[in-house]
Amino acid sequence: MKTIGVLNLQGAVSEHITMLKKLDTVKYSLVKKPQDLQGLDGLIIPGGESTAISRLINQNGLFEPIKQFSRSGKGIFGTCAGLVLCAKTTTKIDNTDKSVTPLGLIDLVVERNGFGRQIDSFETRLTVNNIGDNIPAIFIRAPYIQSFSQSVTPLAYIDQYCVMAQSKNILICSFHPELTDDLRIIHYFIKHCC
């Protein structure tokens, strides 16, 4: 039985809890303070508003503890805004983005809201390397990965845009797997949590 934490500051927290409840091999825990990271095998950083989540990570003293959690080899899964927060560098409209302090957990550059505004949200199906085909993906004000280092393995693309990647214990995606009934991505993440 693995225990997966969900960062409970803002965003799609309840949707991730609902998804985790469907798995018999997992317990879940809500993370608001540094001590909440103790005893976890993995942490989900959910989608939401990356500026607000970034500010609350700092206010709650979680910035360094999350980085240490990652350095210890524990799994971290960032979805949508969680991808933005896990990145080394964020940009917005071709400028460096100063409104988010990224955690720098994965060596890539992410374009916030790269696919457009709320009105540009869309659904599609993806082939995700190492996971499967025909995976439903819901993109809401979604970022995309602009560039990444050799330490990062791209897992899925839409046209020329990388939308899912992994580097060791860090898994990130531009979309919202928690808004679908397909559990293949969360199973993959949990399998890689130690």
Automatic annotation (TrEMBL):
<keyword id="KW-0663">Pyridoxal phosphate</keyword>
<protein>
    <recommendedName>
        <fullName>Pyridoxal 5'-phosphate synthase subunit PdxT</fullName>
        <ecNumber>4.3.3.6</ecNumber>
        <ecNumber>3.5.1.2</ecNumber>
    </recommendedName>
</protein>
<keyword id="KW-0378">Hydrolase</keyword>
<comment type="subunit">
    <text>In the presence of PdxS, forms a dodecamer of heterodimers. Only shows activity in the heterodimer.</text>
</comment>
<feature type="active site" description="Charge relay system">
    <location>
        <position position="176"/>
    </location>
</feature>
<comment type="function">
    <text>Catalyzes the hydrolysis of glutamine to glutamate and ammonia as part of the biosynthesis of pyridoxal 5'-phosphate. The resulting ammonia molecule is channeled to the active site of PdxS.</text>
</comment>
<keyword id="KW-0456">Lyase</keyword>
<dbReference type="GO" id="GO:0005829">
    <property type="term" value="C:cytosol"/>
</dbReference>
<dbReference type="InterPro" id="IPR021196">
    <property type="entry name" value="PdxT/SNO_CS"/>
</dbReference>
<dbReference type="GO" id="GO:1903600">
    <property type="term" value="C:glutaminase complex"/>
</dbReference>
<dbReference type="GO" id="GO:0036381">
    <property type="term" value="F:pyridoxal 5'-phosphate synthase (glutamine hydrolysing) activity"/>
</dbReference>
<dbReference type="Pfam" id="PF01174">
    <property type="entry name" value="SNO"/>
</dbReference>
<feature type="active site" description="Charge relay system">
    <location>
        <position position="178"/>
    </location>
</feature>
<keyword id="KW-0315">Glutamine amidotransferase</keyword>
<comment type="pathway">
    <text>Cofactor biosynthesis; pyridoxal 5'-phosphate biosynthesis.</text>
</comment>
<dbReference type="GO" id="GO:0004359">
    <property type="term" value="F:glutaminase activity"/>
</dbReference>
<feature type="binding site">
    <location>
        <begin position="48"/>
        <end position="50"/>
    </location>
    <ligand>
        <name>L-glutamine</name>
    </ligand>
</feature>
<feature type="active site" description="Nucleophile">
    <location>
        <position position="80"/>
    </location>
</feature>
<dbReference type="GO" id="GO:0006543">
    <property type="term" value="P:L-glutamine catabolic process"/>
</dbReference>
<dbReference type="InterPro" id="IPR002161">
    <property type="entry name" value="PdxT/SNO"/>
</dbReference>
<feature type="binding site">
    <location>
        <begin position="140"/>
        <end position="141"/>
    </location>
    <ligand>
        <name>L-glutamine</name>
    </ligand>
</feature>
<dbReference type="InterPro" id="IPR029062">
    <property type="entry name" value="Class_I_gatase-like"/>
</dbReference>
<dbReference type="GO" id="GO:0042823">
    <property type="term" value="P:pyridoxal phosphate biosynthetic process"/>
</dbReference>
<feature type="binding site">
    <location>
        <position position="112"/>
    </location>
    <ligand>
        <name>L-glutamine</name>
    </ligand>
</feature>
<comment type="similarity">
    <text>Belongs to the glutaminase PdxT/SNO family.</text>
</comment>
<dbReference type="GO" id="GO:0008614">
    <property type="term" value="P:pyridoxine metabolic process"/>
</dbReference>
